[in-house]
């Protein structure tokens, strides 16, 4: 692969990247999706075994999908999601290159240059669809835990079989931490460390998924320019479902304040006190990692994308699949298509403009005049 040029390169072969690719393909635009995984769906396939989505099956559909009927009830597990993404890419014959990690992205003479582990690519436009789960975050003081305490991040946790005998402290009380705590509490003492007061939301209400109600009330699609969208985007996500709340009431799981340090081999708590742990599961989330992105005016001082609805100040460079990119549903399987649609409008306009410039240049040079088909296949 040497200096191959595409109209659009999409970085990331997860739900956001596949959604973008499907729309590009439907429009006849030359594109390539790059994924560093070995198989479509691996980002879900290798999550913890008990992972079940809190969004119902009928909602988890990517754009242009004429798959199973939308009335399907129930909640898919991580393997079902992985299989769905793999089938989606295969059935649509999306142009995906796997086992390909982007090492650097920069600009040169009006084009984007992507240095990858498999060679160099060039593109008129790039969509960064690497998603929110990039680099597992573990606090620095975790390094002070003794070697006889097993510690693992949720990104690498699969099941209780990885743990050693004794108690477990789950540090972090988001939905992943809650599911894992519930999974483990029947067989061993489990503590959950929360950095904030926990809030819970039922998974179903009057026989309907809470997301059905979100849709009816306009919350699911509430965007950042609305009062409800601004308010929701500032709040931490609630724990969805009653399972952890029930275990806390029964005393099967004990709630701790935030873990702030390690001293003498024990976890130190924000509200005082300490706790000895046999196993620590870091449910502390992920951080963005755009160290390969060598384009100015795209990231803020914290390394987070600067954009509005995925559009950056750099012409032709976009983001997709970010939490609250525009609405509550932006990072969800069933919602990313709306953001991809928005980017498609801008991409088509940009490619047409570039093609017009090329035609004018070719006329001026007295050479052959190429039609828009050199970038957009009809």
Structure in words:
- The chain is built from eight helices and 21 strands.
- By secondary structure, the protein is α/β, with parallel strands linked by helices.
- The protein folds into two domains: 4-134 and 288-374, FAD/NAD(P)-binding domain, CATH 3.50.50; 137-199 and 236-284, FAD/NAD(P)-binding domain.
- Strands 1, 2, 3, 4, 5, 6 and 21 form a seven-stranded mixed beta sheet that branches.
- Helix 4 links the parallel strand 9 (168-171) and strand 10.
- The longest helix is centred in the last third of the chain and has 29 residues, at 336-364.
- The two termini are 25 Å apart.
The total beta strand count reads: 21
Helical/strand content category: alpha/beta
- As for the number of domains, it is 2
CATH hierarchy: architecture of the largest domain: 3-Layer(bba) Sandwich
Q: How far apart are the first and last residues' alpha carbons, in Å?
A: 25 Å
> Counting H and I runs of at least 4 residues, what is the number of helices?
8
Under CATH, the topology of the largest domain can be stated as FAD/NAD(P)-binding domain
The main β sheet shows up as: 7 strands, mixed
**H/E series, N to C?**
EHEHHEEEEEEEHEEEEHHEHEEEEEEEH
Shape: globular
Mean pLDDT: 91
Are there runs of 5+ residues with pLDDT below 50, and where?
366-378
The gyration radius over C-alpha positions equals 23 Å
CATH superfamily of the largest domain: FAD/NAD(P)-binding domain
């Amino acid at each position: 692969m040497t200096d191959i040029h595409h109209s659009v390169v999409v970085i990331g072969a997860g739900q956001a990247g596949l959604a973008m690719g499907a729309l590009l393909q439907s429009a006849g635009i030359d594109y390539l999706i790059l994924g560093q995984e070995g198989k479509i769906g691996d980002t879900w396939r290798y999550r913890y075994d008990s992972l079940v989505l809190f969004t119902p099956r009928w909602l988890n559909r990517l754009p242009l999908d004429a798959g199973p009927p939308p009335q399907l009830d129930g909640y898919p597990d991580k393997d079902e999601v992985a299989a769905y993404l793999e089938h989606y890419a295969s059935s649509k014959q999306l142009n995906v290159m796997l086992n390909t990690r982007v090492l650097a992205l920069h600009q040169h003479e009006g084009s984007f240059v992507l240095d990858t582990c498999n060679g160099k690519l060039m593109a008129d436009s790039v969509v960064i669809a690497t998603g929110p789960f990039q680099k597992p975050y573990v606090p620095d003081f975790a390094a002070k835990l003794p070697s006889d305490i097993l510690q693992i991040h949720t990104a690498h946790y699969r099941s209780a079989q990885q743990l050693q005998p004794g108690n477990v402290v789950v540090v972090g009380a988001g939905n992943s931490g809650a599911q894992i705590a519930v999974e483990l509490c029947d067989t061993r003492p489990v503590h959950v460390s929360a950095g904030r007061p926990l809030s819970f939301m039922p998974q179903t209400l009057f026989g309907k998924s809470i997301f059905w109600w979100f849709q009816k009330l306009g919350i699911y699609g509430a965007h950042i320019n609305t009062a409800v969208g601004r308010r929701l985007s500032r709040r931490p996500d609630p724990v969805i479902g009653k399972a952890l709340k029930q275990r806390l009431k029964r005393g099967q799981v004990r709630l701790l304040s935030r873990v702030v340090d390690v001293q003498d081999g024990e976890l130190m708590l924000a509200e005082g006190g300490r706790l000895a742990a046999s196993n620590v599961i870091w449910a502390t989330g992920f951080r963005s990692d755009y160290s390969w992105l060598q384009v100015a005016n795209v990231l803020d001082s914290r390394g987070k994308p600067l954009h509005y609805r995925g559009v950056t100040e750099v012409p032709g460079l976009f983001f997709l699949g970010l939490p609250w990119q525009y609405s509550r549903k932006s990072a969800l399987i069933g919602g990313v298509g709306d953001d991809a649609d928005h980017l498609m409008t801008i991409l088509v306009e940009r490619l047409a403009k570039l093609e017009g410039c090329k035609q004018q240049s070719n006329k001026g040079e007295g050479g052959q005049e190429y039609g828009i088909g050199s970038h957009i296949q009809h």
